[in-house]
Amino acid sequence: MATESNLNENDTIHPLSRIANSKIASVLDQLPTLDDVLHRQSQPPVCLYNYYIVLRDRLELEILLDFWLDVAQADILYKRYIKYANKRASTKFSSPKLPKPSISSSILDYHQRQSNNSNANDVLTHMLLLHPRASLATTMYSTTTNGSHPKRPPPSQSEMIEAVERIYLRYIVPSAEKEIIQLPASIKEGIGQHFYDSEKKDPSLYTGHPENPIIYAQAKEYVHQLLESTFPLFLRYKVFMNLTLPQQIGRLASGLVLLLVGFSLEFSLIFLNIHPWQKRLWGILPIILGVFCVITSITGIDPVWVLGFNLSETVPFQFNHIAHQRVRTILRRRSIMVSAIILFTTLIFMIFFCAVAGKRL
């Protein structure tokens, strides 16, 4: 009988759970996915720029996004490089005569001098310290001074080799400028072995493709999984909130100070038995502002910015318009709810301080 009752209870619970799950799924389906954000196919505030800001300011994981974008940019450049090489080969009715692939001569020379007392990771770490390089995404094919993207020729093989090396020196080697400590050692060793083997071999006999960023495919996939784990937090911060963390902290501190001032003023008016009682309303003003600051800090949403100006904060006191329709709807509903909470709390304080009889001590 107990088993039958449990089955009956499950039969009544499961349909409700399915309905709740379907509602949650329908909301998520209307929001951008991680791939939409990474490929710049989403609208503010759920966009790549805000995702980077959240990873940097709240999660301190912006290195993961830097790596993914640099590898993705290298993949795009490599496709252009291959397309141009194939086009040139078809034009000449022969295979393209490309130079022998080789890694950076500076790395080769240094490795030959230190081969007896240093491994490949130490060599490349040393080269990184001697010749630090900027991110591929921010240096290659950067914008001009007027913001337009100039039309550039396809990258050469030497440029592709340098791009692949730059990623390795920037993110993979120990003590690198932006070393990804979350990557498993097996993935790092696999990538490092590629460069180490190419150094040890005679460049004239080396038949690999050092210009191909495919060596980062496994690392890129692993980093993508890490980014997927952070994406729900990003949606929480940008879909249900429109304040940054410094703004929340500042409002909390300001709200507590304003509440202290308001309460002190109100209790002073009560125990001094100041007449008429309407003068107590002056003490309500800092209390209203204090309640507003504290509640908006806790909820992370400013109803004035959302309902009045349709704004979401990116960094402190810098904003972008809420362009995504579904996000705008969610923020407006939450703003109305937060406004109701602020008004209700303020009304309680107003009734309490105005209704209490004064008594001079």
Please provide the count of β strands.
2
CATH homologous superfamily label of the largest domain: Regulator of G-protein Signalling 4, domain 2
Shape type: elongated
Label the CATH architecture of the largest domain. Orthogonal Bundle
Spans of at least 5 consecutive residues whose pLDDT stays below 50 are: 1-17, 94-102, 105-147, 202-207
* CATH secondary-structure class of the largest domain: Mainly Alpha
Walk me through the structure:
Helix 3 (48-59) packs across helix 10 (217-239). This protein is elongated. With 361 residues, it is an all-alpha fold. Strand 1 and strand 2 form a beta hairpin. The model is unreliable at 1-17, 94-102, 105-147 and 202-207 (pLDDT under 50). Strands 1-2 form a two-stranded antiparallel ribbon. The chain has 2 domains: 31-91 and 155-231, Regulator of G-protein Signalling 4, domain 2 (Orthogonal Bundle), CATH 1.10.167.10; 241-355, no CATH class. The chain has 14 helices and 2 strands, in the order αααααααααααααββα.
Descriptive tags:
single chain, 361 residues, Regulator of G-protein Signalling 4, domain 2, 14 helices, elongated
Summarize the structure.
By secondary structure, this protein is an all-alpha fold.
Give the topology, please.
Blueprint: H1 2-29, H2 34-38, H3 48-59, H4 62-92, H5 105-114, H6 120-130, H7 136-139, H8 157-172, H9 185-200, H10 217-239, H11 245-271, H12 281-299, H13 303-309, E1 311-315, E2 318-321, H14 325-355
